[in-house]
Each structure stands twice: as structure tokens, then as C-alpha cells.
Amino acid sequence: MLHVSMIGCGAIGVGVMELLKTDPEVVFDLVIVPQSGLEHAGATVRELCPHTRVDVGLNGSRPDLLIECAGHLAIEEHIIPALESGIPCMVVSVGALSEYGLADKLEQAAQRGKTQVQLLSGAIGAIDALSAARIGGLDSVVYTGRKPPGAWKDTPAEKVVDLDALTQATVIFEGTAREAARLYPKNANVAATLSLAGLGLDHTQVRLLADPGVTENVHHVEASGAFGGFELTMRGKPLAANPKTSALTVFSVVRALNNRAHALSI
Ligand SMILES: NC(=O)C1=CN([C@@H]2O[C@H](COP(=O)(O)OP(=O)(O)OC[C@H]3O[C@@H](n4cnc5c(N)ncnc54)[C@H](OP(=O)(O)O)[C@@H]3O)[C@@H](O)[C@H]2O)C=CC1
Ligand SMILES: O=C([O-])CC(=O)C(=O)O
Predict the structure, then answer these.
(1) Which of 33, 130, 172, 252 could staple 41 via S-S, CB 3.0–4.6 A?
(2) How far does residue 64's CA lie from ligand 2's centre (Å)?
(3) Would you say 123 is a known binding-site residue?
(4) Signal peptide location in the record (predicted)?
């Protein structure tokens, strides 16, 4: 049985608990949220998993695994100290690692704690193939992210185009993954994950489009190198609770927990 503490009780966290609440091999002992979210998360968790505690931190408890489904600040606040103290961790907010130095900080914390941090594939696939291809040498990785105009609300795209008036697919950004992450941090998880698995933030080319013709989050990747090449298109259905987040992200967290908890891992 795997004793898990989870940071975050939003679209992903709730989706994960819903899918795993009847699995006897995965037990959520604790959900961590900010002080301001305690009441709301408490009510949600009581309904889903009545035996799970809700708190603002680990406060001395030592889960088998700490999983982050919360955001950038949670990595600094909870994941780094947990790694330092030897608790294995998983991270879903991979976009946060596009901040200079944070990926190194995570790795060093895990080294000091003699443990491991796993970056989850989230909304994108083929991370296994890309990361294996890197061993032989990659020449090019190009990522195109296409989302409905509504998914670009509250981002710099609002200054580039009138999102409500768009009638055709429009490029709102073209450049490196590092620049994409700086401008669009909440939509940068896929770009950052592809970069970390592949050619890095400065050599991964990114194009972002607002497209009134799609209802899904469409992620397209083209990679080539010594291994040959691949092309991948993911059409991710967004979560009702957060249109910026694809449902596959929830499934990727559940898969990762299943792989840790069960005898067969795939
Ligand atoms: N890897 C990938 O492919 C993807 C990654 N993501 C990332 O996953 C993360 C979660 O997404 P989602 O569930 O949709 O987001 P939501 O906004 O729905 O939920 C976030 C949850 O985390 C909590 N939270 C925020 N900051 C902290 C903190 N410092 N400590 C503890 N809890 C905190 C929030 O609490 P409160 O509401 O009280 O503030 C809320 O419960 C985001 O960072 C997102 O960018 C999303 C999609 C794909
Ligand atoms: O599709 C998703 O779930 C989120 C996304 O594009 C990203 O953060 O890169």
C-alpha cells in the first residue's frame, strides 16, 4: 500500500482523488493547500476521501510519496524541503522549471536527500521516446500548441489579438520554449516538459495559436535526430473545472501513482 500526500486540491487534485478513491493500494493520507484554501478543500476532501486530512504542510509526517498538483510556489515551498529530507516526490507543474536554476535546485535537493523527483508527462505523450532519442542525439524539436481562444484569457495573448473576435487560427507566439514559458507560464508545462526531455529550453522551437476552430488543447510535436524522426498530435479534452488543463494530465498522475503502487508498471 502506497501512502501519498498530495499538494493541491484543484482541477487535477480532485480528478486524481476521484479516480483513485476506491483503489486499496493507494491511500491519500494528506492534502496540502494554502491557509486560505483550507475550508474549501476540507469540504471537498471530506466528500471524496473522508479519512484524508487537509493541512497547510507536511508538519512532520513522512509519506511514501509527495505529489505536487498545485503550481510553481508549491515546488519551492513543499517539494524542495521534502526532497531534502529524503521523501520521494512527483511534480506536475513542470513549466515552473523553466525558471532559471529551479531544475538544478530540485535535482540537488533530491541528491542531498538521497531520493528522487519524477517529472510527470502530464498533457503530452512520447516523452519516453524523446528522452531516449536524446541519448543518440537530437537535431530538432518543434512544438505547436493550439487552443481555443478562451484558453488564452488572462495571458499576454490578449494584447496580441482580440480573442473574442477571432474567426481563424492566429499565431500568438513564435520563439524558444524559454521565451514561451516566460510569457505564458500557465500554458508552458508541455513546452517545458518537451524541452527537459529533449533539446533544452533554448533550442526547442515553439509556436502557440489561438484557434476558434478547435474545442480541444491540440499539442503537435515534430522531432528528428540520430534515431530517425517522429510526429505526434495530441487532441486533449480540457477539464470542465479548468479549461487550461487537459484531462490527460489527471490520467498521467493516476498512471504514475499506479506504477508506484502496483506490482506491474507500464
Ligand atoms: N504537466 C502538464 O502537462 C500540466 C501541468 N499543469 C499544472 O498543474 C498545476 C495544477 O493545475 P490545476 O489543478 O488545473 O490548477 P487549479 O488552479 O485548479 O488548482 C491548484 C490547486 O493548488 C493549490 N495551491 C496553489 N498554490 C499552492 C501552494 N503554494 N501550496 C499548496 N497548494 C497550492 C490551490 O489552492 P487554492 O485554490 O486554495 O489557491 C488549488 O487547490 C498548475 O501548475 C498547472 O500549470 C496543468 C496542466 C498540464
Ligand atoms: O494542455 C494542457 O493541459 C496544458 C498545457 O497546454 C500546458 O500547460 O502546456
Answers:
(1) 33
(2) 28
(3) yes
(4) none
What is the fold, at CATH topology level, of the domain defined by 2-122+247-261? Answer: Rossmann fold (3.40.50)
31: enclosing H helix or E strand:
strand 26-32
Tens place of pLDDT per residue across the chain (266 aa):
999 999 999 999 999 999 999 999 999 999 999 999 999 999 999 999 999 999 999 999 999 999 999 999 999 999 999 999 999 999 999 999 988 899 999 999 999 999 999 999 999 999 999 999 999 999 999 999 999 999 899 999 999 999 999 999 999 999 999 999 889 887 789 999 999 999 999 999 999 999 999 999 999 999 999 999 999 999 999 998 988 889 999 999 999 999 999 999 99
Torsion on CA atoms 245, 48, 53, 51, rounded to nearest 10: -150
Nearest CA owner, ligand 2 atom 5 = 187
The yes/no answer to whether this complex scores an ipTM above 0.90 is: yes
Residue type at 256 in one-letter notation: A
pTM as predicted: 0.95
Domain 127-236 - what CATH class? alpha beta
Say whether 119 sits in a helix, a strand or coil: strand
- Nearest-Å Rg of the Cα atoms of the chain is 19
Interval between CA 143 and ligand 2 midpoint (Å)? 12
CA 19 to the chain's CA centroid: 18
Q: Which of the following is catalytic: 51, 78, 219, 220?
A: 219
In the residue annotation, 262 being an active-site residue is answered as: no
Is residue 177 marked as binding?
no
